[in-house]
Every structure is written in C-alpha cells, then in structure tokens.
Amino acid sequence: MNSRERVHAAIHFQPVDKAPLQYNYTPVGYFEHGEKLNELYASVPDDFGPFQKKEIPVLTKDQLDENGNYHEFKKDEWGTVWEYRIYGIAGIPHIYPLEDMSNLKNYKMPEQSEIGSEQFLQAFGNRHGAIIIVGYREQPIRHGSHPHAGAKVSP
Q1: What does the pLDDT read at residue 125?
Q2: Which of 43, 107, 133, 143 is most buried per CB count within 10 Å?
Q3: E-state strands within the chain
Q4: What confidence tens digit (pLDDT) does each residue in 78-131 have?
Q5: CB–CB of 98/108 below 8 Å?
C-alpha cells in the first residue's frame, strides 16, 4: 500500500498493511533530543507528506535560572503572566490581570481582529487545512445521522 491508500483505508475502517504514521513537531521534543529527532523522522517517512527538517531550539541566558535550568515568565495579551519551567510545555498562570474583581471596570481586553480582516488572515490564513469555528450551536447527534452511529465495536 502507498501512503494515500493506507490513510484512506484507515479512515474508512478498512484493513491496512500498517498503521498510518504522522509526525508532529513539538519544541520540547526537539529541545530534548536535538538532531537525532530530525534523523529519525527522515529515516522513517510518515504517511502525510514529506519530512521537513526543523531547527533545534537554542536557549538564551535570560531563559535559564541560576542553576542552568529553563525558567521563564511571559505576559500574554490578556495581562496574565505565565511561568514556564519545561521548555515547549504550557506554563502555569503566575499573576492574573484581575486578582481582585474591583479592578474589572479598569480592565482593558485585547483587541480582536474582525473575521476576514488582514490581521485575521495573517494570524490564521497560512494554516493549511485549519478549521476555524466562528460560532457554535449545541445540537445533539441523532441516532443514525453518523455513518458509524450504532456500530458495534469489538474489544
């Protein structure tokens, strides 16, 4: 089977010669394993496109604490200060913009770009295959409305 046939068969619950493989870039993986990860990905092609070599993250002095461990604080557009201790992994909130609700009337939300504006397209337009949800209405799935609804799954 070629990659296209393998993925198509797997999506349609048909037999495949092996499970489809897809690599996903994570900064923590490249930080921890460096060039070895590029070599691994290049040696075993995935089924969703050609491998593209990634740059290995290099930390600067200001991203390290006195013991040489990664430790960084970053403030987001909402005013929350995040503390990061593992490179490439989400931080934890350290300082909140509204520690006290009495400050709510003075809180300024960040500007949001209009859907379809130049700023919006710059932020989201280059994401090949991205799905952007612009609204939501809860609607239950009716029995039989999905091709596999009611299908029996064996353990």
Answers
A1: 62
A2: 107
A3: 72-75, 81-84, 92-95
A4: 999 999 999 888 899 999 988 888 888 888 888 887 877 887 777 766 555 555
A5: no
Query: Is residue 18 within 8 Å of 9, Cβ to Cβ?
Result: no
| Sequence ranges of the domains in the chain | 1-58
Query: Which of 5, 12, 2, 9 is CA-nearest to residue 148?
Result: 12
Residue 44 has pLDDT above 50, yes or no: yes
The Cα-based distances of 50 to 21, 34, 58, 76, 77 in angstroms read: 12, 19, 25, 34, 35
Identify residue 52 by its one-letter amino acid code: Q
Residue position matching structure tokens 């919006």: 120
CA distance 22 to 55: 19
41/12 Cα distance (integer angstroms) = 26
Residues 150, 90: Cα–Cα separation, whole Å:
38
